[in-house]
Amino acid sequence: VAECPAILGTVPIYDAVVYYNKALKDITTQEWLDVFRMHAEDGVDFMTIHCGINKQTASRFKKQKRMTNIVSRGGS
Predict the structure, then answer these.
(1) Phi, psi for 46 (deg, rounded to 5)
(2) Are 61 and 70 in contact (CB under 8 A)?
(3) Cα 47 from Cα 25, distance rounded (Å)
């Protein structure tokens, strides 16, 4: 990160899925916060944070039986 001349951003929730090798629905709050902290400590310039989902929205998503996880760009 320190050597990158470009502005560098990350999406911690996606990294959490890979880092913990778990489905998105199984990532705990603490695990997500740990990954978020790791990205901040790495010194990224910005992070995309998915904060528009509340418990009611999450419940609706679970009932829809989606084929793939929710993504920030393009949908699933």
Answers:
(1) -155, 160
(2) yes
(3) 20
What is the distance between the alpha carbons of residues 9 and 42, in angstroms, rounded to a whole number? Answer: 11
**Between 12-20 and 29-42, two packed helices, what is the crossing angle to 10 degrees?**
110
pLDDT digits (tens, 9 = 90+) for 30-62: 999 999 999 999 999 999 887 777 888 878 877
pLDDT at 44: 92
pTM for the model: 0.64
What are all long-range contacts of 68-74, with beta carbons under 8 Å and residues at least 24 apart? 69/17, 69/23, 69/24, 70/24, 72/11, 72/48
